[in-house]
């Protein structure tokens, strides 16, 4: 590629956003009447971004993630994943999903658990072995291939779950409060590892959390949401550098962004009864 | 030592209590006949002699434990295997139709469960019929099955095995339906995100998740299968099998033989259920279950 050709990028060759939502809404019909889990969400997520969704329970952040994953169907508006509908994106195996609980199959060893999507998607045995080795070393679980999930701690199980989501070539990673059930120290460690992983694999990550420091530490963009009805209150572009040691969390820049997040939450009435 | 105190001692204690109670009832139930005998022979007996006599009648109303034990021991260990009085031979006849019926019943139960979980029409229509089928008393159904099959020329092992199948497919079907539907929602969602086919979901998720349920229901099923095999021997006067021994015992008032046959049946039942349990435990261990 010579320098001249790469200097000019016509608009038609721009990479489409990974997630594009316009006026997205989702109303659940419950016994107590309709519940507006999402209302009028307009959002664009570009390639390589790390986007955190933060808000109190009931603000629609998990629902939004599930709509992207085609696990829920929206009732209003539109959403496109890589230019396709969520159903098509799912059929094309465009994303990996990490649940709040590790969701490992207890009758499979760790390596067999990571092999699960690879088996379903038809990778050859040799490819499977190579990918399992690679992803396990990415999450620092080499040596635990033959162990069963019950023999691993919560943090390790969650790392295995992340490895599983990385095993096949999905460019989008959807993570639903993956570290929510872990203690602070393990969480700090895993946050660091996740950032390193993101740098090395260059994926687009959508990360749902209810921890303000976690959201500010990890992301390039923070989406603040509030409940009743679930909506986006603020979208904050992070000014922090790409290289982030853990003690960046004490810098004034970090605290300023965290304060802005808190403002957004307050504006969305998240701190009121 | 704790193993003995925690597991074996309580069972022995209960067993001891049952034996004591058994002796008391043996004396009480055999006493009227003994009194009658003594009156006709014009014999006077002391209480101790009387009790001894009630416990050694040839055809007692309720055989004493030691009478049953001696008969069981003789007919199991001291008889040729081909003899008509060998409990091992009769147990084997019953066991063979039990095992055949259990195999058929398990396969049938699994197939029905797979159908119910995957085909909505079957889910709605099949369950009520399956449950209704089990409400018909097997004692009434067994003769019909045997007679109908005999009219078509099928006799011997197959009709008895079919009765066992009839009784054993139900627990397996019910247990497997529950087992195939047991995976957590997150596990099913995960499969959805992989765009897995229904076949993938079945072989990689539902089936492994249902293994504990399968073994639990197989324990019930194999006991029911044994009952079916014994019941299948009663109506048409079979000549071999535990049920046949019970029948001939009742014809000739050989109550001691009947009780010995019952004990043999219980031993077979315990062996079968224990075997299923051990196989279940080994399978679950091989599938990565936590050692209890």
Key features of this structure:
heterodimer; A: 273 residues; alpha/beta; six-stranded mixed beta sheet; three-stranded antiparallel beta sheet; 9 strands; B: 292 residues; mainly alpha; MetI-like fold; 2 domains
How would you summarize what this structure contains?
The complex is a heterodimer of chains A (273) and B (292). Chain A is an alpha/beta fold and 273 residues long. Chain A has helices at 3-7, 61-68, 86-91, 110-121, 125-138, 154-167, 184-201, 212-218, 252-267; strands at 19-30, 33-45, 50-54, 76-81, 95-98, 172-176, 204-209, 221-226, 231-237.
Provide an overview of this structure.
Chain A is built from nine helices and nine strands. Chain A has helices spanning 3-7, 61-68, 86-91, 110-121, 125-138, 154-167, 184-201, 212-218, 252-267; strands spanning 19-30, 33-45, 50-54, 76-81, 95-98, 172-176, 204-209, 221-226, 231-237. In chain A, 42% of the residues are buried. Chain A has a six-stranded mixed sheet, with helices on both faces. Chain A has 273 residues and is an alpha/beta fold. By secondary structure, chain B is mainly α. Chain B has two domains: 2-61; 87-286, Orthogonal Bundle (MetI-like fold). Chain A binds chain B through residues 69-71, 90-91, 93, 95-97, 99, 101, 103, 105-109, 116-117, 119-121, 148-150, and chain B through 184, 186-187, 189-196, 200, 204-205, 208-209, 211, 287-290.
Task: Lay out the secondary structure.
The complex is a heterodimer of chains A (273) and B (292).
Chain A: H1 3-7, E1 19-30, E2 33-45, E3 50-54, H2 61-68, E4 76-81, H3 86-91, E5 95-98, H4 110-121, H5 125-138, H6 154-167, E6 172-176, H7 184-201, E7 204-209, H8 212-218, E8 221-226, E9 231-237, H9 252-267
Chain B: H1 2-41, H2 47-54, H3 65-77, H4 87-118, H5 120-135, H6 138-151, H7 157-180, H8 185-193, H9 198-233, H10 242-251, H11 255-286
Helix pairs in contact in B: 1-2, 3-11, 4-5, 4-7, 4-9, 4-10, 4-11, 6-7, 7-9, 9-10, 9-11, 10-11
Q: How far is the N terminus from the C terminus of chain B?
A: 20 Å
CATH architecture of the largest domain in chain B: Orthogonal Bundle
- Pattern of helices and strands of chain A: HEEEHEHEHHHEHEHEEH
Uncertain regions spanning at least 5 consecutive residues of chain A: 1-13
Radius of gyration of chain A: 19 Å
Radius of gyration of chain B: 25 Å
CATH superfamily of the largest domain in chain B: MetI-like
* Strand percentage of chain A: 15-25%
* Number of discrete helical segments of chain B: 11
In the CATH scheme, the class of the largest domain in chain B would be Mainly Alpha
**Main β sheet profile of chain B:** none
């Amino acid at each position: 590629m010579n320098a001249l050709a790469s200097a000019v990028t016509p608009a038609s060759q721009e990479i489409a956003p990974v997630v594009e939502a316009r006026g997205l809404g989702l109303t659940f019909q419950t016994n107590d009447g309709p519940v507006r889990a999402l209302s009028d969400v307009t959002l664009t997520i570009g390639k390589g971004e790390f986007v955190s969704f933060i808000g109190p329970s009931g603000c629609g952040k998990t629902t939004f993630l599930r709509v992207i994953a085609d696990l829920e169907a929206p009732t209003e508006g539109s959403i496109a994943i890589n230019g396709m509908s969520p159903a098509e994106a799912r059929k094309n195996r465009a994303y990996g999903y990490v649940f709040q609980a590790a969701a490992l199959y207890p009758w499979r060893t760790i390596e067999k658990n990571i092999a699960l999507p690879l088996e379903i998607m038809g990778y050859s045995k040799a490819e499977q072995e190579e990918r399992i080795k690679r992803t396990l070393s990415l999450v620092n679980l080499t040596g635990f291939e033959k162990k069963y999930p019950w023999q691993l701690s919560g943090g390790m199980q969650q790392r295995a779950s992340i490895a599983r989501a990385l095993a096949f070539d999905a460019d989008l990673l959807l993570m639903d409060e993956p570290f929510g059930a872990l203690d602070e120290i393990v969480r700090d460690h895993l946050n660091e590892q996740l950032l390193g992983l993101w740098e090395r694999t260059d994926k687009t990550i959508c990360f749902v959390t209810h921890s303000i420091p976690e959201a500010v530490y990890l992301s390039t963009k923070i989406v603040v949401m509030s409940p009743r009805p679930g909506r986006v209150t603020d979208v904050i572009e992070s000014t922090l550098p790409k290289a982030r040691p853990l003690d960046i969390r004490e810098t004034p820049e970090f605290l300023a962004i965290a304060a802005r997040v808190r403002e957004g939450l307050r504006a969305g009435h998240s701190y009121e009864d | 030592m704790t193993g003995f105190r925690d597991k074996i001692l309580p069972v022995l204690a209960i067993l001891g209590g049952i034996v004591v109670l058994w002796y008391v009832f043996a004396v009480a139930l055999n006493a009227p006949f003994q009194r009658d005998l003594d009156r006709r022979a014009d014999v006077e007996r002391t209480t101790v002699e009387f009790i001894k006599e009630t416990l050694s009648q040839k055809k007692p109303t309720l055989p004493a434990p030691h009478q049953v034990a001696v008969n069981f021991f003789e007919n199991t260990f001291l008889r040729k295997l081909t003899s008509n009085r060998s409990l091992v031979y009769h147990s084997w006849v019953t066991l063979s139709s039990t095992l055949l019926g259990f195999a058929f019943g398990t396969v049938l139960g699994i197939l029905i469960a797979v159908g119910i979980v995957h085909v909505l029409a079957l889910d709605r229509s099949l369950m009520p019929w399956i449950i209704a089928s089990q409400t018909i008393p097997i004692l009434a159904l067994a003769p019909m099955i045997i007679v109908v099959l005999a009219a078509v020329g099928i006799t011997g092992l197959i009709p008895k095995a079919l009765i066992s199948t009839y009784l054993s497919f139900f627990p397996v079907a019910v247990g497997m339906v529950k087992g195939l539907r047991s995976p957590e929602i997150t596990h099913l969602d995960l499969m959805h995100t992989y765009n897995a086919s229904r076949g993938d979901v079945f072989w990689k998720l539902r089936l492994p998740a249902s293994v504990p349920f399968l073994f639990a229901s197989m324990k019930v099923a194999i006991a029911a299968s044994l009952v079916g095999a014994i019941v299948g021997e009663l109506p048409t006067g079979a000549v071999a099998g535990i049920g046949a021994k019970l029948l001939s015992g009742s014809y000739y008032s050989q109550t001691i033989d009947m009780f010995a046959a019952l004990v043999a049946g219980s031993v077979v039942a315990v062996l079968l259920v224990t075997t299923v349990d051990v196989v279940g435990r080994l399978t679950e261990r091989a599938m990565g279950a936590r050692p209890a």
